[in-house]
Amino acid sequence: MSVADRWRARHGRLWSIQRLARLDADQLEALVALARVVGREHVGIRRTAAGISEDALISPLASLRFGDHLVIGPKVTIGPYCAVWGGFEATTTVEAGAILAPGAVVVAGNHRTDGEGWVRELGFDEHDATIGEGSWIGANATIVGCRVGAGAVVAANAVVIEDIPDGAIAAGAPAHVVRMRSRENGVST
43, 83, 115, 156: which could join 138 in a potential S-S bond, CB 3.0 to 4.6 Å? Predict the structure, then answer.
């Protein structure tokens, strides 16, 4: 048996994918690396994290980290390229019916910036992050260690670093309340 035949026997599926997709070796290596990330940050965590509802709709391109500190409720939708990360001790919660549009980021803390030296060596400040029931987080919005109230709307590209009340519409960087949703929209203000 030739070296090529032994390789094909050992890596048959990859070789078939490479042939069907006409990938060169570098492209195949990148595809395998991507599959490992998806396996670690999506598939694996969905299997092991007890706080993730079975009927949450989570894109396979979303990044979920620190599964022991993640709570994702029923009927939640998490779009592609979202990052939903718990902390080492703080918890990130996405309550029932909330929607995270593509690219939204929800994290339970931030790097410290006071002091000299590399930021990565200054430590981390953690705070629980909560996305309230039935709220909507717009595309590419970032929520850092605070609460977005039930039924609230956060505009695309907003950066939320302080709590947003129930039923509010917030926009900007840093985000601020621009108005309250009306009762006709089903939210009591």
Answer: 156
CB within 8 A of 171, min separation 6: which ones?
154, 155, 158, 178
What's the structural domain count of the chain? 2
d(CA 21, CA 31): 11
Residue with tokens 């070789």: 15
Residues 44 and 112 in one domain: no
Tokens of 126: 């953690």
- State the Cα–Cα distance between residues 39 and 45, nearest whole angstrom: 8
- Bridge partners, residue 159, by sequence: 142
Which structural domain range is residue 145 located in?
Answer: 51-185
Is 66 in the same domain as 142? yes
The model carries a pTM of 0.78
Task: Answer yes or no: do 24 and 58 share one domain.
Answer: no
Query: Residue 85 forms beta bridges with which residues?
Result: 65, 107
In contact, 149 and 169? CB cutoff 8 Å? no
Q: Are residues 100 and 38 in the same domain?
A: no
Each residue of 33-54: pLDDT tens digit?
888 877 777 667 776 677 899 8
DSSP secondary structure of 42-108:
IIHHHHH-TTB-TT-EE-TT-EEE-GGGEEE-TT-EE-TT-EEE--SSS-EEE-TT-EE-TT-EEES
